[in-house]
Predict the structure of 2-hydroxyacid dehydrogenase.
Amino acid sequence: MMKPVVYVTRKIPDDVLQPYREVFNIRMWEKEDKPVPRDILLREAAKADGLLCLLTESVDKELLAAAKNLKVVANMAVGYDNIDVEAARSNGVVVTNTPDVLTETTADLTFALLMATARRVVEAADYIREGKWDYWSPYLLAGSDIHGKTIGIAGMGRIGEAVARRAKGFGMSIQYNNRSRKEKAEQELSAVYKNFTAMLQGSDFIVSLVPLTQKTAQMFDEEAFRNMKSSAIFVNVSRGGTVDEQALYDALTNGQIRAAGLDVFDQEPISPEHPLVGLQNVVCLPHIGSASEATRTKMLKLSLDNLKAVLDGEKAITPV
């Protein structure tokens, strides 16, 4: 019996793949640092029974129409806005993602980014590298306190709750906005539900952890930033498309808000010439929310286990 063909869109460690070679005929794009070209992706998908992809790959109607044998797409991420899920379903293709395994790691990065932005850590490190530290002064690179302040979390899912737990450890007051109330979080974390505008107006730190949908696209727009405190710090670790980047740039340069920490952008990767990169009150990271070695390995193994389950005729472990 022939093994099902699985195409992996980025080079991953052989020790992760090896146990699955017994059940799959694995084909793989061999470059770790560059996405697979679209023409090659279409050609390989047309031969595949399963696809393990990243956010950089668009699994759209064109690809799904060409991939006649495709039965499952395993997306190595929690979000799946790179996949036309409805088109996949209409073609009988199961779509899976990787929730849970990256929750705590992403929450760590979220809070690290919040702290680095508030305390101007990157700017301070550059200050020394550039030879500017000649003497100490009382307000040299003075930032914002975190303890005792109010955090507003947009999107109180698994990661949102994990961020709230960290905030509670810093003695922060927690406000949140979500599609539905989270009574457990309210009871355990003393989180207070607010409508979106009220949350923006009452928070010292606003953290975006919402998925990218039609409703959340550019939800952080000119009006949203206008509703924030002038001392507010905005942190985005969800999707770049949830933010109107021009409105954010304007808010940062005209003093509407104090600073921003960004792990995601509307179009990735960004160049050093991106307007937000040049601002001293912005910390930019290259979409590394879940980037610990242990977590990325767990994400890969979950993706491969999802492929195996579906191709074995069983239910997916984490279907979308």
